[in-house]
Specification:
Elements (H helix, E strand, L loop, with lengths): L1 H20 L5 H12 L19 H6 L16 H8 L11 H12 L20 H4 L25 H12 L10 H13 L5 H9 L5 H11 L2 H14 L18 H12 L4 H10 L13 H9 L17 H17 L18 H15 L11 E3 L3 H37 L4 H12 L7 H9 L15 H18 L7 E3 L13 E2 L7 E2 L31 H9 L5 H16 L20 H10 L4 H4 L3 H9 L2 H4 L6 H7 L11 E2 L2 H11 L15 E2 L5 E2 L20 H5 L18 H9 L1 H17 L6 H13 L5 H13 L13 H11 L2 H4 E2 L1
Length: 846
Amino acid sequence: MRRSSFIAIGLLAATVGRARAAEPITFEQHVRPILKAYCLDCHGGGEKPAGGLDLRLKRFAVAGGKNGPAVVAKEPGKSALVERMKSGEMPPGEKKVPADQLAVIEKWIAAGAPTLRDEPATLPPGLGITADERAYWFYQPLGRPAVPEVRNSKRPIRNPIDAFVLTKLREKNLDFNPEADRRTLILRASFDLTGLPPTAAEIEQFVQDDAPDAYEKLIDRLFASPRYGERWGRHWLDVAGYADSEGDGNADTVRPHAWRYRDYVIRALNADKPLNQFVTEQLAGDELVPRPWTNLKPEQVELLAATAYLRTAPDGTPTGAADAEQVVTDVVKVVSSGLLGTSVGCAQCHDHRYDPVPQRDYFQLRAVFEPALDPGKWRKPAERLVSLYTDADRARAAAVAAETGKMQAAFSAKQSSAVRAAFELELAKFPEGDRAKLKAAFDAPAETRTAEQKKLVASNPKLNITPGVLYQYNQKVADELKAEQAKIAAKRAERPAEGFVSVVTEVPGRVPETKLHYRGDARQPKGPALAPADLTIAAPDARRFEMGLKTADGTTGRRLAWAKHITDGTHPLFGRVMANRIWLNHFGRGIVDTPGEFGRLGQLPTHPELLDWLATELPNGGKEKGWSLKRFHKLIMTSTTYRQSSRRDPAKDEVDRSNTLYGRFPVRRLEAEAVRDRILLAAGRLDLTPFGPPVAVVEDGAGQVGAPDDQPRRSVYLQVRRTKPVAFLSAFDAPALEPNCDRRNTTTTAPQALMLVNSDFVRKQAAHLAARVKAEAQPGAGADALATAAWRAVYLRAPDADEAKLAAAFLDAQPAPKAGAKGADLAALTNLCQMLLTSNEFLYVD
């Protein structure tokens, strides 16, 4: 909460600034937000206000408490509220009211403590939701804004996005940049949709294609690539907090079946599954599969796998590193930040201090998920598995078991006979008078042997013949037994492997109660059981969505009902959050640049009308194209806003240096996974095999975590261990999932440069690339030809004259390697390849 507190202080400071600029200061708009942040937790938020002083209304403050009035209109110097704040006595603790905000309160009192409207005669317990809080932009009903009329534009207005963006630019006397060149466009679109570059041939073909719809056809071709789902699946997995381990302390227990959820996400996006269906299946896919869950079809397995979205959060219960209540808290955080753009967790202990989320709302939202998570009857990960065995699998397994049983019995009999025969042959070598005693000693069970027999066994090891040493006595029979053992193993391998899927579901007939927790302490529940409901602020007064449904199989149906509600196309929070998230991943910043926090702790939208238009456009398209992500991508990517060049203009920078108005396309560094994948692709080694269990990460001699060099799969298929992140990916801002990631940071740091220069991974791939370049070049190729070949492999273009000259000079200047050294003939070329792989042109896309 420390970061949120700093943001809130900045927010309230901005409120103060606005208050000074716009008179008059009123209680509702300017003073109450300060009191809510610093005072109302004790003076109005609880059942009984401390000292009898309630500060929720102006007239309550004037009436005062046990120590008299807190506010004396027109006399701030005589007002106890100001006096206590100035002295530092109130609020208690380290968090004090800043001087500029205290000045607002003083100015308000001096002006007569005005209110914006008549205050109600009474208030129900708690902070409630005020009219001013309801008026905040994020909580307004979704409406479709009129598209601005734009005339005399220098650049084409290809769709409404351009009209909204250009209107904002013109307010600052700015315009769009010219359109990017064809080569830039295909690189931009390819990385954006697939996370990989096009081939040189694809670039050339697109550059030469003068058809008016060439760009649209390019986008359609990229949509058809299976790489699209891997790229955009990674974006969603960040938001979901996907990991292949539990995060239970140092054990960090592996989740052996988590990959099924990752594969579900990728398949769903490749198939352009409608977004409302995509979200509904993750929240309640189990409710869509009739019980009993036997002989499951592939599409039913997908639905069950989708529910792992509700179990991506860290789970310390397997090893006792955390309790079930913490897991539930993290699940609610993942859902609320990812789907509602709201940090409801701040309302777990008390009414939210900055946003209109009462504590009661937090627990009513939690009640939607309570029957499935059920911390009172917690099921650990291993208890949430559903077998994928079908009746046919079981029949086949039984048949294999029966057959191998017969084979094993015959084998054991033959083995025992062979061992006995070898024993008898060896025993015959002893004097006849000793044989009976020796036979009796070795035949007797070890625990019943007499002292004399034990001595005989110990002193005659040659008679201690076991299957493991049979080859020393009868090689022919030992070989026969080994062959039969191999046949048994082969037959046993015919048994169908039993797969499992991790499922979040309810126990039919069990409906645990959800109650408010006093100060957020689960050990102190209070009050009556709460009905499951959406947030109050997400609907107009008296129209809050509540539920109490039952399905045919005895489960509550709460999650399915809530999922359908938020995805009905009118939910003001969900629609804006989803549209903003897609926009963010195309432009590197959101229209609201705090994608998990749209409330007063977050940033305001740069283009609120555009965001609302996009939020209403997302579910459009009719039955066939409604909620289509690919249609939405295409809308954004075919706009002039997206297709403009990234060239910087000093005049524009003076007005909009951070490019919040989108007067140019932002230059963006590739994300961590895209950097790694592009390196592997340039080296000619990227394994594009999709789906399945992840590549297990390993530690090298220096303790750095990475993937085995002989398994160069796409990064989305690498194991995600919470305590063992892949070092290369972490250096380039792969997220720490605590519990999820709303938005990745993009940094430029020294460790990144060191990783590119010193890591074994980059050096090995540079060597692979050098070998590829050498193999593809003409025999005896000189420095110029090798440099050109390396340039084409890495940058997908030929070097210009200056670049070719510099590269050739670089190769010629490399010190001669020691004679006989491994890879001596490629050392110089490897160095050049590494330089290219670590360059800005390789790491950035414009």
